[in-house]
Amino acid sequence: MNSFVFQNSTKVYFGNDSVSTYLPGLLAQYGPKVMLTYGGGSIKKTGIYEEIMGYLKTAGKTVVEFSGIRSNPTYAKVLEGAALAKKEKVDLILAVGGSVMDCSKAISLGAVYDGDLWDAYWAHAGKIETKPIPLGIVLTVSGTGSETNGGSVITNESLKVKTGRDYPELNAQFAILNPKYTETVPKFQFISGAFDSLSHMMEIYFSEPNDNNVSDVMNEALMRSAVDNIRAILVDPHDEGARSNLVWLATMAENRILKLGKKTDFQCHILEHSLGAYTFCNHGAGLAVLHPVYYRHIVKDGTKKFARFAEKVFDIDPSEGDELTRAQKGIEALTAFIKEIGLPTRLRDMNIDHAVLVDVAAGCVASPGSFRQLGKEEIREIFEEAY
Ligand code: NZQ
Ligand code: ZN
């Protein structure tokens, strides 16, 4: 196992009554002005907005609203929010949503930084020397795991770049996860989010080291659980156990614990992010299309690990056939699972214009943590095969 330092500074409140139980007390710990950030308005339809505004009012807060944060949040929106937070001198940013979390983290930093935010913190890894505005999260849709990391994935529309950085300083101070809040998330969105979590687990699993290590063993249990619980929620959307498990699995995949001691790959995320920069496609759906195609390319470079994945996650009999055949069967089982849960397996089924793929491929870099680094030409082939 590689050496590591571990800390996760976000305090998590999990459960169906977690917002009503904990949010009022948490609000009392911050100053009088709260910037409430949210998306395109689902929280108004579901009643979450009204509930949270009630707690804010009772706590005597002055509320500065910042709404309209879209999926795949843009850098322009970050700048707009940062300017507002700075002007209003807010004491706390309360992010309510999914992508809203990523945008709000960037706002919390942008509000206290005067230079070129993109250049200093997203174009390449920087060092945060100013204290961002405190951030609290109320999750309404699960998948990315953004609630307990400092990850903020932002799309720079003018540069056609979608990229993320994980700065520990951007971790929220608290994150409230109420699985019940996710009941109104459209089925496709909820499943694509759950697949995003599984993708995070796979991106961590298929990387060095491959010797006996705790991360891989935990990861196998989590991947199995993700597969089982996605199946369960599709059978019964009211299955509270499956829903709670999927919300927590998403957090577990990205709270940095699984990554400890691992190099991690995230090649598939690099491919999907470039696709997203050009098309604003659904993140989990893009990953669903790309994973099997990418894995068919690298299966011979990591045969033993793919065969182990096949056995541990998809019950491929370890005594049957040679290692490569079993490894390939695992990838085909993953493909069948993606079809079974209603996610796309071709880019053409995602309304993606074939013409953008040349630029999308050119915008990708090779992951240093993968079994084998992909060349530019091979990345282009992967997009062609995925189409
Ligand atoms: O905008 P509103 O109106 O709120 O609607 C949202 C949005 O359309 C809706 N929704 C949210 N909660 C709801 C609800 N609808 C009904 N009931 C509720 N309770 O669902 C949609 C949610 O979209 P979003 O939050 O944007 O999720 P999505 O998975 O599409 O996007 C995730 C973003 O995070 C990035 C992705 O790249 C993408 O930009 N990632 C962030 C990571 C991180 N910070 O660690 C890691 C990931 O790998 C990922 O890259
Ligand atoms: Zn992801």
Plain-language structure description:
With 387 residues, the protein is α/β, with parallel strands linked by helices. β6 (151-156) and β7 form a beta hairpin. It has helices at residues 18-27, 42-46, 48-58, 75-88, 99-110, 117-122, 187-205, 214-235, 240-254, 267-279, 283-298, 303-314, 323-340, 357-362, 376-386, and strands at residues 11-14, 33-37, 62-66, 92-97, 135-139, 151-156, 161-166, 174-177. It is 49% helix and 11% strand. The chain is built from 15 helices and eight strands. Bound molecules: 5,6-dihydroxy-NADP and zinc ion. The site of 5,6-dihydroxy-NADP has 35 residues, from α2, α5, β6, α7 and α11.
Brief rundown of the structure:
The chain has helices at residues 18-27, 42-46, 48-58, 75-88, 99-110, 117-122, 187-205, 214-235, 240-254, 267-279, 283-298, 303-314, 323-340, 357-362, 376-386, and strands at 11-14, 33-37, 62-66, 92-97, 135-139, 151-156, 161-166, 174-177. With 387 residues, the protein is of the alpha/beta class.
Largest sheet: 6 strands, parallel
Bound molecules: 5,6-dihydroxy-NADP, zinc ion
Strand order of the largest sheet: 1-8-5-4-2-3
Poorly predicted spans? none
Question: How many distinct helices?
Answer: 15
What overall geometry do the principal axes of the alpha carbons give?
globular
Q: Give the beta-strand count.
A: 8
What's the gyration radius in Å? Answer: 21 Å
Distance between the termini: 37 Å
- Helix percent band: 40-55%
**What is the beta-strand fraction?**
5-15%
Order of helices and strands: EHEHHEHEHHEEEEHHHHHHHHH
Mean pLDDT: 97
Structural class: alpha/beta
